[in-house]
Amino acid sequence: FAAEDLTILLIGHEGHEEVEGTAGEAPENVILVDGIDGIPDIKVPDENKVAWLSQTTLSVDETLITVAALKKRFPNLIDPPSDDICYATQNRQVAIKDIAPQADLVLIVGSKNSSNSVRLVEVALEYGAKAAYLIDYAAEVKDEWFDSVGIIGVSSGASVPEILVQDLLKDLAVRGYSDVETITATEEHLLFAIPQELRKELKAAQKQ
Q1: pLDDT of residue 60
Q2: Short-list 20, 10, 82, CA closest to 44
Q3: Exposed (0-12), middle (13-18) or buried (19+): which is 164, by Cβ within 10 Å?
Q4: For residues 12 and 54, is the Cβ–Cβ distance under 8 A?
Q5: Beta strand pairing status for 7-11 and 30-33?
Q6: Catalytic pick from 14, 18, 188, 197?
Q7: Side-chain-side CA neighbours of residue 129 (13 Å)
Q8: What is the C-alpha end-to-end distance of the chain, expressed in Å?
Q9: How confident is the prediction for the chain on average, in pLDDT?
């Protein structure tokens, strides 16, 4: 986008590492959009040459609301080449929306510094979970959370090691919650093409 001299509206949270890294690639072309309140005041050199990108760990709902507001402000807004929202983040949020209405308790394994992990707790509560907590490890689970709890939903942040989730499931099994049902929001079948420059190098290497 920057190479095409487009203004890039970067949807994300100020100070987030990914946002700072992305903006640093082309600082003269990037405008940070942190929420919808400031969108009417955004000034760009050419309103027909504007594109959007997003912090990949943002809430899917939050991103879509912001994009909709941006498209009202900039009718010719250009979308990313592919969905810019992290697939793992999106799939977890969809699954939590399915689980939450029937869950007495939802436990999310993830860091309190992770925006996508924090958002999973918020989504669980918004969609009907009676209680939801964010934990780094199974050892942080508290006995009082299980009073009158029948169904527990478990998920994790996008970058959480699977072993931490398995540790939590083992802890829950010891507490009597050993009947596990896996909820799959969507099957991921994604293929990412090797960049053209690298393909040329590989072909050249194979000929040697």
Answers
A1: 67
A2: 10
A3: middle
A4: yes
A5: parallel
A6: 18
A7: 26
A8: 36
A9: 82
What kind and span of H or E run contains 52? strand 50-54
Which tokens belong to 16?
């987030």
CB neighbours of 172 closer than 8 A, spacing ≥ 6?
Answer: 152, 154, 178
What 3-state class would DSSP assign to 79? coil
What does the chain come to in residues?
A: 208
Q: How far apart are CA 8 and CA 55, in angstroms?
A: 13
Per-residue pLDDT of 146-176, as tens digits, reads 999 999 999 998 778 889 999 999 999 999 9
Spatial strand order of the sheet with 50-54 comes to: 30-33, 7-11, 50-54
Considering the entire predicted model, what is its pTM? 0.55
More confident residue, 4 or 32: 32
State how far the alpha carbon of 125 is from the alpha carbons of 66, 106, 146, in Å.
22, 9, 16
Tens of pLDDT, residues 90-146:
788 888 999 999 999 999 999 887 778 888 999 999 999 999 999 999 999 999 999
The answer to whether residue 18 is catalytic is yes
Which ranges in 34-193 belong to alpha helices (H)?
60-73, 87-99, 115-126, 162-174
Helix (H) or strand (E) segment spanning residue 202: helix 196-207
Domains of the chain: 2-73 (3.40.1010.20), 87-174 (3.40.1010.20)
